[in-house]
């Protein structure tokens, strides 16, 4: 009887978890900036999630639950949290607005590099919330569950993170035009 329950639990876990694999890996890679470390982080996340799956309540937000496990695993793997985790943007899924010329490609890449540089300068809690909202497209509620903070904190932190990103981008771009 217990073996049957374990099989059902494992099948349910697989059904919920496997569709999120690529998203979890991408988030882990953004956090770690190392493919091997990201793979290890996702593997450890899945192992912890499977071990603790009995504590997950079906019908609640599995995505937020497993992202929280990944985030907590990442945070506990760091001593003093590195403040400057560089970020890379995967532009392979970007739709093209029109015919690409060498000039437009160069300008787009330069703009992406500026955004990457500015994102790398932001504090971890700002980068994290921007990634969850803008890249992972989580709702405020999902972000609150993932980060274990109140919804108001999500909104205010996201607002401050967007303002910091905007201000630093403006500074950087104005500095380049004056140079």
Write structural notes for this entry.
With 179 residues, the protein is mostly helical. The chain is built from 8 helices and no strands. It has helices at residues 2-17, 21-32, 35-51, 62-77, 102-121, 124-135, 140-147, 151-178. α5 (102-121) packs across α8 (151-178) and α7 crosses α8 (151-178). The protein starts with a helix and ends with a helix.
Q: What structural category arises from helix and sheet content?
A: mainly alpha
The count of helical stretches stands at: 8
Poorly predicted runs are 80-98
Helix proportion of residues, in percent?
over 70%
Radius of gyration: 19 Å
Assess the beta-strand content as a share of residues.
under 5%
H/E element sequence = HHHHHHHH
Biggest β-sheet: count, sense, barrel? none
Amino-to-carboxy terminus distance: 73 Å
Average pLDDT: 80
**Backbone shape:** elongated
Number of strands: 0
Topology:
Elements: H1 2-17, H2 21-32, H3 35-51, H4 62-77, H5 102-121, H6 124-135, H7 140-147, H8 151-178
Helix pairs in contact: 2-3, 2-4, 3-4, 4-7, 5-8, 6-8, 7-8
Which descriptors would you attach to this protein?
mainly alpha; single chain; 179 residues
